[in-house]
Amino acid sequence: MTNWAKSSHDSATPKIEYKKICPIGWYKTEIVYADADNKHESTEASTEFVMVYEHTKDKFKAFIKSIPSANLLDEWSKEYLDDELMQPKIKKWINEYFDRKTDDIGQKLESDLIKIVRHIAQDPYQSAPEYHSFEQRETYDLDKIAYKVIDFSSRLKYEYLDKEFSQPETLWKVFYKSLIRFETAVDAAIRNIINPKPEGETTPVVILPLERRDKELNEVEKEEVKKRDGYACLCCGVNTKGKLQIDHIKPFSMGGETSKENSQTLCVTCNKCKGQNEIDFRCNTTKLSIPKNLDLSLISEGEKAIKALTRVLNFFYHCKAVSKIDWEVYTYTYNIYLYPSNNPEWLLQHKAELLKLIKNKLGCHAEYINVNTMK
Ligand SMILES: [Zn+2]
Q1: How far apart are alpha carbons 58 and 120 in whole angstroms?
Q2: Which of 46, 182, 228, 238 could make an S-S bridge to 176, C-beta 3.0–4.6 Å?
Q3: How far is the CA of 234 from the centre of ligand 1 (A)?
Q4: 277 or 62: whose pLDDT is higher?
Q5: How far is the CA of 317 from the centre of ligand 1 (A)?
Q6: In the chain, what are the domain boundaries?
């Protein structure tokens, strides 16, 4: 059991009223940053939600009002935040506008303020992030879900929760981030139903699991992630033991949490190439709507052609798009197989460059490249 799961039974965990953990609305923040994995003028936008609760609504309003974009240092809009610059400011804002004891739900207040300030810093014309009021609170009543699944077998219950969690139009993902947290919360709600508190006592609500702010997983968890990922780099497939590292999918500096769900196994080279970009190589479908530039510098000296090519292509699609690459020895043909929903046309435009890369930089003989999509 993970630490945060334990904490939900912990008698020392403070009880928070239902109202206080059920958001009444959210701010939508957007951070646009120059794409660091190529030198061209491409940018990437990342949308983040900041949950607002009844008791924090006015506080956020006052806080946002107090930040005129003109007074913000450029530093806030950069992709890499300088911790030394940021931390004292954030602490000051929290002291001034919030109460850490009641408002730091799920230990997210600091990263929420960063999201808001970065949004404002980057967007001097529109300034404040948009507030959306959350009218469907009823839909997100955990007790309702708990009653629904309380008599299900474990298998049926987890299947049902998986389906509910994955529905595209719901906000469970925003609230709970990962399926396992959602399941833990529902299980806790079931325990409350089976073993209710005496009347008059406030029904303890399901505490949103705490986010850990450790920078790294512990050794046992790292090993579990590697095992889950088949002891191989999810980007290029390298499986040399000493070369594997655990990477934050969403970088720690961007508010990414240290959890197994936000971790992936990468080799040293792929991890270095990824840098502070948010790329999920557990995902087989690109999230990009337009292709990026092909970065041919992402190879290291003396690498095997197929591994290097796989890396260049997966970075190009910003996910694990390549299912396999094979080489027909007699015809000097490279066959590239992409997972479905990754547009092969994006790659076909770069055929000549890729052939050149294989011949000149990887030292292999190549005459033809085919790009296929797996059915
Ligand atoms: Zn790799």
Answers
A1: 18
A2: 182
A3: 7
A4: 62
A5: 15
A6: 3-20+136-194, 24-133, 219-282, 286-375
